[in-house]
Amino acid sequence: MNPFTVRLNLHGDLDFFVRSGAQGRRIERSLGEKTSVKDVIEACGVPHPEIDLILVNGQPVDFDYAIASSADIELYPVGARPTTFKEKRLQLSTDRAFVADGHLGRLARNLRLVGLDVAYDPKAEDEQLLYTMKRENRALLTRDRRLLMHAVVRTGYCPRSQNANEQTVEVIHRFDLLGSLAPFTRCVRCNAPLQMVSKTEIIEKLEPLTKIYYEQFRRCTGCGQIYWPGSHFSKLQMRIDQIRLNSNS
Ligand SMILES: [Zn+2]
Predict the structure, then answer these.
(1) How many whole angstroms from 190 Cα to the centroid of ligand 1?
(2) How far away, in angstroms, is 26 Cα from ligand 1 center?
(3) Which of 8, 94, 193, 248 could form a disulfide with 27 if both were Cys (CB 3.0 to 4.6 A apart)?
(4) Are residues 180 and 206 in the same domain?
(5) Model confidence over 192-204: pLDDT tens digits?
(6) 119 plus 158 within the same structural domain
(7) Ligand 1 center to residue 160 CA distance, Å?
């Protein structure tokens, strides 16, 4: 087979994945054999879960589409799709449960704080993350692009920012979660749901001042941690308001 050229054009913020060393939004590659469009894309550094629409010579295709001759490839991330080909999107935006890798502890806490279901184990190895992702049907959150490129990953996202609050806003945007937020309904320590609990039931576990000043309590159904609107509460509330605000803009 004679070598042929593919030209990729990255839309939205997909150039995030090729910024270092590559030539920007437009990439040209020479191929010597029939190659799936997914392999072409990932060879350029963009993990497949980040791609929502692929147009090859103007026509929408799936990841396994084989490229065998010169082609122009347009790549769109979630949220930056053109208005046409709406039915050809490759990513689901219905994910409501996540698994975060060991480096994203602050992001995991933030997402739990706004009520989202996030599996997180700081010691989890890649294999365990992928296992949890598959078994519990969770979307994978990781900044490890190689991991995101793993063939078993169906849905996932690489936070662009290194700041946990900005990452939180990114995830809420990417998975369209603004309508699903339910602050203070989930334990930030273990991810289990919180339950209202009467003061009399837990009064023996409370510090003297907490006993006096607070009436409303929630208890984690997993680890038993007790939550009340103490001084840390207003700080958390501010963080949540900030996240809501940023997600709206
Ligand atoms: Zn808990």
Answers:
(1) 4
(2) 47
(3) 8
(4) no
(5) 999 999 999 988 8
(6) yes
(7) 29
Give the per-residue SS3 of 206-220. CCHHHHHHCCCEEEE
Judgement on whether residues 38 and 114 belong to the same structural domain of the protein: no
Residues 153 and 133 in one domain: yes
C-alpha of residue 192 to centroid of ligand 1, in Å:
5
116 CA to middle of ligand 1, Å? 14
CA dihedral 48, 51, 52, 53 (to 10 degrees): -110
Per-residue pLDDT tens over the stretch 50-71: 999 999 999 999 999 999 999 9
Q: Which residues contact 59 (CB under 8 A, 6 or more apart)?
A: none
Domain count, the chain: 3
Domain range for 83: 4-88
Ligand 1 center–CA 158 separation, angstroms? 26
146 shares its domain with 84 = no
Residue 247 lies inside a defined structural domain of this protein:
no
Is there a single domain that holds both residue 177 and residue 101?
A: yes
Model pLDDT for residues 128-182, shown as the tens digit of each residue? 999 999 999 999 999 999 999 999 999 999 999 999 999 999 999 899 898 889 9
Q: How far is CA 15 from CA 6, 106, 174, in A?
A: 17, 26, 16
187: nearest Cα among 133, 241, 108, 247? 108
The CA 187 to ligand 1 mean position distance, Å, reads: 5
Distance 131 CA to ligand 1 centre (A): 22
CA of 139 relative to ligand 1 center, distance in Å: 21
Which amino acid appears at position 172 of this protein?
Answer: I
